[in-house]
Specification:
CATH architecture of the domain at 160-240 and 285-322: 3-Layer(aba) Sandwich
Order of helices and strands: HEHEHEHHEEEHEHEHEEHHEHH
Strand content: 5-15%
Mean pLDDT: 92
Helix content: 40-55%
Radius of gyration: 21 Å
Distance between the termini: 60 Å
Oligomer: single chain
Number of helices: 12
């Protein structure tokens, strides 16, 4: 079905529902209720599984047990990349994942995780809570019968692990590399053979030579995954995920069947989880980076020529999707908010941190 036609039809259906709702109050489920949460994370994956577990626990505890979340890690009910379809189809009640895994459903989902050369974690929440991002997440979710909230953030992600050093854009030609989302599409434009693997499968793929390199998250999660056992070439700064958000999405019919109090608990638990998870990653990354370096890992930066190539490819990928009306709407909103936020951040905390490092050494 054409998306515009779908939206028009949905709007008419929504109007009818609103009319019906005016005649009769909604009936909320009575007593205790269990919601099944599927996730894109293998059980125990550092940070990301923790975020899903935190959200599930918070919802259960805040509701006093009247709303219990039964968490299923990747593969326990459905596969890591099948959670979106499972929840939209009603096979599960909610998912926890990185929404850029679902750009095949709609490319606009990338913005609620990360787009190349996009928003930092702080800029993302500025947009989400004060510049229309949450409303756009909801507008996108309505198409697929979802009610979504941000519920985790990794902070800035590393450029990744490579079997050899990258000295020019040409080094990506033929390189087998794991990178999801629009960042992966940008690498493809540089000639890379891009793979989209679930987190629990990345170590084995890198160890076996099925891939030549991978990005995962950052020093702490990467160390836990053990990539330093395979290669010692690590790029600390990446272009693809400057502040990657994670999402908690509930089947919309399920969400609307809950009491207003339970709906609010899910929203608040997701928001708390976002900030807790961001702090978890950032609190652990510095010490983990030191341990990696002590173990012989060489921490590198991409040369300017590679950054320039990343930028050109990223602009092409974004431009290719601008024909979609909703993608353009989300893109323009996010970029306007990012520009507005970054103006003050650069002049205030950006200058302060640079001066602090200079003064304190």
């Amino acid at each position: 079905m054409d998306r515009r036609k779908f939206l028009k039809t949905s709007a008419l259906g929504g109007a009818a529902a609103a009319t019906t709702g005016a005649l009769a109050a909604p009936a909320y489920a009575q007593g205790n209720r269990t919601l099944t949460m599927v996730t894109s994370w293998g059980r125990g994956l550092a940070g990301v599984h923790d975020a899903a577990e935190r959200a599930a626990t918070m919802i259960t505890e805040m509701s006093g047990g009247s709303l219990t979340v039964d968490l299923k890690a990747a593969g326990e009910l459905v596969g890591a990349f099948e959670v979106f379809d499972a929840v939209t189809a009603g096979q599960a009640d909610m998912y926890h994942a990185a929404d850029y895994y679902f750009v095949g459903q709609h490319p606009g989902y990338a913005f609620f995780t990360a787009v190349p050369f996009g928003m930092t974690a702080q800029e993302l929440v500025n947009w989400y809570y004060f510049d229309g991002g949450m409303e756009l997440h909801d507008e996108l979710g309505q198409i697929f019968g979802l009610k979504s909230f941000l519920a985790g953030n990794t902070g800035a992600q590393a450029g990744g692990w490579y079997s050899r050093e990258i000295t020019s854009p040409e080094d990506f030609n033929g390189l087998k590399f794991r990178m999801p989302g629009l960042g992966g599409k940008a690498l493809g434009k540089l000639g890379a053979s891009v793979q989209n693997l679930p987190g629990s499968e990345v170590y084995q793929a890198l160890a076996s030579g099925a891939i030549d390199g991978t990005e995962w998250i950052g020093p702490w999660a990467d160390e836990k995954a053990g990539f330093q056992e395979i290669t010692k070439t690590y790029y600390a700064a990446g272009f693809h995920e400057p502040g990657a958000g994670l999402s908690l999405a509930t089947n919309r019919e399920v969400f609307e069947s809950l009491s207003p109090a339970h709906q609010r608990i899910i929203e608040i638990a997701a928001g708390e989880c976002h900030q807790w998870n961001l702090a978890q990653f950032l609190a652990n990354n510095g010490a983990a980076l030191q341990r990696l370096q002590a173990s012989g890992v060489k921490v590198l930066e991409f040369p300017d020529s590679v950054w320039d190539a990343f930028g050109t490819a990223s602009r092409e990928v974004l431009d290719e999707n601008m024909g979609d009306e909703l993608f353009k709407k989300i893109h323009d909103s996010a970029m306007a908010s990012m520009k507005s936020s970054s103006g003050w951040i650069k002049q205030s905390s950006g200058v302060y941190v640079a001066q602090r490092d200079r003064v304190l050494g």
